[in-house]
Amino acid sequence: MSASEQLLFGGPLLYDTGWSSHDGAFTRLGLWSMVATLPRLIRTTVRLAAEADRGALRLVAAAEIGRGAAQAVGLVAVNTVLAALLAGGEPADRLREALPALAVVAVTALVAALLTAASTYGSGRLEPKVERVATERYLARASRVELAAIEDDQFHRLLDTAQYGAASARRMIDYCIRVVNALLSLIAAAGVLTVLHPVLLPLLALMTVPSMWSTLITTRRRYCSFRTWVQHARAGRVLSSELTATETAAEIRVHQVGPFLLKHFRAMSASAEAEQTRLARLDARTGLWASAWTGLAGAATYLTLGALAWTGVMAMSVAGTAVLAIRTGSASLGGMVSSVNNLYDESLFVADLDQLCVRAAQWAIPEGGAPVPARPGRITFEDVTFRYPGTEGEPALSGVSLTIPVGHVTALVGENGSGKSTLVKLLAGLYLPESGRVCWDGVPTSCADRRQIFDRIAMVAQDFNRWRFTARVNIAIGAPGVPVDDERLRAAARDAGADSVIESLPRGWDTLLARGYQNGCQLSGGQWQRLGIARAHYRDAPVLIVDEPTAALDAKEEQRVFDQIRDLADAGQTVVLITHRMASVRHADLVHVLHQGRLTESGSPEELLARRGGRFRELYGIQAAQFGRPVDSGHLDGAVPGR
Ligand SMILES: Nc1ncnc2c1ncn2[C@@H]1O[C@H](COP(=O)(O)OP(=O)(O)OP(=O)(O)O)[C@@H](O)[C@H]1O
């Protein structure tokens, strides 16, 4: 490691992600453990393939077994050809004698080629399906777990690693076919050699084991060295991206950071280059050792064969076939070693995916439960305490008891971090209370059918999602279970004031709302907010939760949104409103004031404002003072703090 890396990064630049824990797993695999894990790896691959497409799996398996058999038959036929050619007699007679076997050799070669093509077709069909099935498993499980699971560090790490499982599953098919292919070649060669002469089998082992061993060592050395080299290269890449990023551009110029970073870039590149040179030297040396080893084993094999043929213990034709069989059997060994290693590497990610599925099932939002009325009468919090998973200290909510009446606007007010957003997440059944109950018409969220609760809610969260889809989908995704209805879309956009935003887009409803893509468009914060509100309108649920719905809107639009919220409540919809703008609170029928996770006051805006020494009155006073109005100067209707 260079001094630059020590200075800039405090040590080697290693990833701290779930998947990086598998880095180097390959180096822990010895020759014996490789052989021992192979059946398990093949089983895993077969299971994945069977889930995706049994037909294609059968095709590949049959083609590979057939190809191995064709290879064995071909070798036996070669032996017959050699025996005929090396026998005594006229050349023409010997050739005639060899012809049928020659025909068998040709036919087996043709069959092997056809079967290879069939296997290529089968694996080509299988691989994308395996990836799709694994991806679907991943996505379906991940989207069904409790919100608490997403916040759990360990689960999140697993989620991070398991996302690579699908691509790994696809690659496992390819590596597995290569391994099986090489194995069958080896078995075919071993089978034929055993039939030809029992002494030939140890000769095959003599040739293959050292070459397998040396390939394993070479591959592992290369891999270790590559990992070191890649760290230096990564550090260099970090510097170059810092040097060219838009965010750093101004500071780099004014503070003249460029030469400083360049100096360290050069030093780090020198480390990377030195490592590559070392890698090349090592490669050359181990390559030479491996060749010497394999060469010696080969020489010993061929000398033994020669001696056996010379002394007449073995027929010349058998020795010739043995040479061919040994070459065939050991040819794909090198590839097989690295394929087994790759197979092992990939299997770790697939195992993570399997583990994720198990953990996700434990964390899954339960199916079914007590039914929740389509139009609930009231929602109550009964002495609710809640702490975020993995956090210690003060709970985010403690001992909160309140009622959210139906068909009214209830405002939640309080300073930052007082627990307003947490409260609505509990209301929506996204989290369950640690103690106490949140009840929808008397049904606690802990035993209610939570999918039904979700159905009853439309939510415009503070950080509502800006989907990188078209404007149409960005609104229609509010009700993903029903077909997109253009009339309903237009009405929702009109109600939320998003119609003018859509009209201004170059391709109207079909404009892609994402920067960095062709024809993609980026909206302003306020425009996005209108779309978010339109999405909630489109959902058309009995309970509407709006968290700071107007933070990015201009004054006119804000007024319109609040008037509309009022209209919705007058029409029977339940609205839960979180806002820091005290002026907006005058639209509410009931206000709950939270402070450090506790409910401190409840009442109508007028009641709370009249309460001397109350927190609401204090918060209101602070905002009113910014506009030069004392809190006593008038009613809520007249005052416009926050504007
Ligand atoms: N996902 C989370 N994990 C851990 N703690 C959290 C999480 N979300 C919020 N908190 C903590 O819970 C407390 C209440 O946060 P909450 O977001 O409910 O406050 P809020 O009243 O909505 O704040 P704001 O007005 O800033 O939106 C805070 O102390 C916050 O740090």
UniProtKB/TrEMBL annotation:
GO terms for molecular function: ABC-type transporter activity; ATP binding; ATP hydrolysis activity; ATPase-coupled lipid transmembrane transporter activity. Its main location: membrane. Keywords: ATP-binding, Membrane, Nucleotide-binding, Transmembrane, Transmembrane helix. It is a multi-pass membrane protein. It holds the Pfam family ABC_tran. InterPro entries: AAA+_ATPase (IPR003593), ABC1_TM_dom (IPR011527), ABC1_TM_sf (IPR036640), ABC_transporter-like_ATP-bd (IPR003439), P-loop_NTPase (IPR027417), Type_1_exporter (IPR039421). The chain crosses the membrane at residues 68-87, 99-122, 175-193, 199-217, 286-303. SUPFAM superfamilies: ABC transporter transmembrane region, P-loop containing nucleoside triphosphate hydrolases. This is ABC transporter.
